[in-house]
Amino acid sequence: MSNELNLKDEFKLVTYKNKGRNQKKTLELKSKIDKDFAPFDPDLIKRRIFEAKDDLCSSDLYDSFRASMREGLDCLGNKRVEEIVCFGLGRFSECVISRYQLALLLSFKETYSCKVYVYDPIFSKNEIDLLLKLDFEVLNENTEGKFKVKGEGLSLFYLPHCPKELSNNLVWSNWGLNLSTCIIISNSFNGIIERNNAKDLENKAGFICKILPYTLELAVINSFKYFEVFNDTAIHIFPINNLKLISNDFWVISEKEPEYNSNDLEFITKNLN
Question: Are 35 and 127 in contact (CB under 8 A)?
């Protein structure tokens, strides 16, 4: 798995409006390899992660995440979040974007007091060891996003800037009323539809396209000073009352597992691990 966000050696200059005033924010940190982290220093990396978490949690962006999550949980009957599953976090020891995305995951872990499962085939052994010390469960199999929910409570899926195929696989895996127990934080489904042509959508996001009319997408107001970290991120829920309006024939298409052109893949498959 890899971030869909196209990273340069440094972040671009980002301009956005906030309270009627134009503000410019620049990240001078490297987004690929941070030389401060060579050789691997777990204590330093952990400190940087928690500094990012403090920075994030004091922001208006985090308030927007919390408000949208409360709205989503209310629509889902305020059921308990029983597990959090994160795919495609990236090399957080080397990448500033990934470190802030991990900071958000840590805040979710504290908020919902549940087990958190993480997986990315590009994690280093040192990163896995650090995640274990942070009390995350590190999955050892590349499921390509095909994770089926099991419990009665809610499963929160966090796919930060992941390729659309992973979100598509996740939707396919829970195709049916199971989707009512899923919350997916990922690139905006509506944005995926808007940015891609019909052929790409059919080949790479067919299940996203089909479920979109029954999806409630909750926006996250991205006023964060490092805009690209959470750009295009949205929260997706599938209210049971919406899903019950769908005929049984609609769900039959799930019998065929999604297939993608191997020459045009945007993520690391299990065969390439």
Answer: no
d(CA 167, CA 211): 12
Judge contact between 272 and 260, C-beta under 8 A: no
Amino acid at 161: H
Give the pLDDT of residue 264.
Answer: 67
In this structure, what token pair is assigned to residue 20? Answer: 């009627």
Integer-rounded Cα radius of gyration of the chain: 18
Edge-to-edge strand ranges of the sheet holding 137-138: 137-138, 115-119, 81-87, 154-158, 182-187, 233-237, 216-219
Count how many Cα atoms sit within 13 Å of the Cα of residue 203 in the half-sphere of its side chain.
12
Token look-up 């340069």 returns 8
Q: What does the alpha-carbon distance between residue 162 and residue 2 come to, in Å, rounded to a whole number?
A: 6
pLDDT in tens, 54-70: 999 999 999 999 999 99
Confidence (pTM): 0.85
DSSP 122: T
- Distance between CA atoms of residues 188 and 264, nearest Å: 21
